[in-house]
Amino acid sequence: MRNIYEVQKSNKIKSAVVVALFVVFVALATYVLAKAMSIYFGYEPGQLGFVGVALIVSGISSFVGYYFSDQIVLGISGARPADRKKDFLFYTVAENLSIGVGIPVPKLYVIADSAPNAFATGRDPVHAAVCATSGLLEKLNRTELEGVVAHEITHVRNYDTRLMSVVSVMVGLIALLGDWLLRATWFGGRRNNNDRDSGSSIFLVLGIIFAILSPIIGQLIQLAISRRREFFADAGSVELTRQPSGLISALTKISADSEPLEVANKATAHLYICSPFKAKGRGSASWFANLFNTHPPIAERIKILKGMA
Amino acid sequence: MIYILVAILIILVFWIISVYNFFVSTKTRVGAAIQEIGNQLKRQFELIPNLESSAKGYLIHEKGIFDELTNARKAISSAMNSGDLKKMTDAGKMLSDLLPKIQVVVEDNPEIKASEVVKNLMDELRDTSDKVMYARRLLIDLTADYNVKMVSFPSNVIAGIFRFEKLKGLETPVDGDELKVGKEEMETPKINL
């Protein structure tokens, strides 16, 4: 049994540790890959050039998603702005919780989909958007909806979209570098065997190992960060509403629903309150399967929430 | 060596600035949070007559409820004029206390229960008292953040140097009968069905 403040504190520390681990890993992988590439092509100053190009390519693709994240929501088929009359509970609950954290009310959207789920996006609290499916609004009562919207507002308040975008730029960077190195070595490329000593061939072998493994490792750490932020948002939701029972019963209802969300894709999966892909066994998933999930198992989330009650 | 000292000094100065800014900005935000409570009370004050007139036809026999709505409205208005934080929070409570009473009336009368207008009235009443509650929550949270930094090391040193004072926040009694649990309250309530 830990109270909400202790949970928040340990969340903060764990999250910082995972992010620090990630930064160290990215730096190491980038260094090794760049070094291996420059040795392979026999072109010393090239190492930073490759990193630069990879950073730009990976950065542009993620930046577009990040900067226009609130507008991309509109592009999702069937997303309509929430209306105070029609979606009274959703609209007013979001309004009230924004008063509670002292941020402007996010733009609110409703997706016509019977699978109950919700997500938040937007680069900062001013450009934030919270989106709920019509299934969610139908199935939850006010207290439950308050728990869910408070979870999303905590994502907004903690700049989680920004964090996850930066993380995905970094993962993309490593993946690109690894991919280039593998392609180059696979197809033979230009070889100049004359100036190769044992030190540089070690780097080359290391580089190929990194090229194969680091995209996977990077993604695993990315998923670990995503799961940490979910725990964070759950605790933040309780801190706001002081009613863990609302979120607990909402999570139970959402997980009892087996319909997959049609509009979800892998890029936005980490933003939802519960993983939009329901194919994997829920609750009792093994730790190994859990490594590849954007969200912690619901049973574990509920256990922690109950501890806070 | 000298560089390390300079670096430490620069970090220290930045840290002092950030702690100082935390205190002054939170203090300002606490002021804004108090205004937000007043703002939400004003909204409540303006909302009540609308609700009254729309639901009057359905709750015509429940004069007591309308009297209490009017009383709540008066209390809010006088609290807003006085500008006293404690009075303002008390006035907000009157409306949320009224909600269960309406619920009882509605449960007793199936024809009222079915009416969209009365459901709307109850939704709006709950929403407006929630809004005042969340405005208070913001004040409580900000004051708590401020006061925790005030007493915890090392930020308490900065607070001491600049003579920041503890914020009162929402005033609640810290001793007296409100915090005592009487014998009756310890007993398990008996329910006769």
Keywords:
heterodimer, A: about 300 residues, mainly alpha, Zincin-like, 2 domains, 4-stranded mixed beta sheet, B: mainly alpha, de novo design (two linked rop proteins), 7 helices, elongated, LemA-like_dom_sf (chain B), LemA family protein (chain B), MamQ_LemA (chain B)
Would you give an account of this structure?
The complex is a heterodimer of chains A (309) and B (193). With 309 residues, chain A is mainly alpha-helical. Chain A has 2 domains: 4-69 and 165-215, no CATH class; 77-160 and 227-308, Metalloproteases ("zincins"), catalytic domain (Zincin-like, 2-Layer Sandwich), CATH 3.30.2010. Chain A has helices at 4-41, 46-67, 69-75, 88-101, 134-139, 142-157, 160-186, 198-241, 244-256, 287-291, 298-308, and strands at residues 79-81, 107-111, 118-121, 129-133. In chain A, strands 1-2-4-3 form a 4-stranded mixed beta sheet, with helices on both faces. In chain A, a hairpin with a 7-residue loop joins strand 3 and strand 4. Mean pLDDT of chain A is 78; it is low at 279-283. The mean pLDDT of chain B is 79. Chain B has a single domain, classed as de novo design (two linked rop proteins), CATH 1.20.1440. Chain B has 193 residues and is mainly α. Chain A binds chain B through residues 88-89, 92, 95-97, 99-102, 142, 240, and chain B through 29, 32-33, 36, 40, 123, 126-127, 130-131, 133-135, 137-138, 141-142.
What class do helices, strands and sheet pairing of chain A give? mainly alpha
Distance between the termini of chain A: 9 Å
> pLDDT below 50 for ≥5 consecutive residues: which ranges of chain B?
none
Shape of chain A: elongated
Subcellular location (chain A): Cell membrane
Keywords (chain A): Cell membrane, Hydrolase, Membrane, Metal-binding, Metalloprotease, Protease, Transmembrane, Transmembrane helix, Zinc
Enzyme class (chain A): hydrolase
GO molecular function, one term (chain A): metalloendopeptidase activity
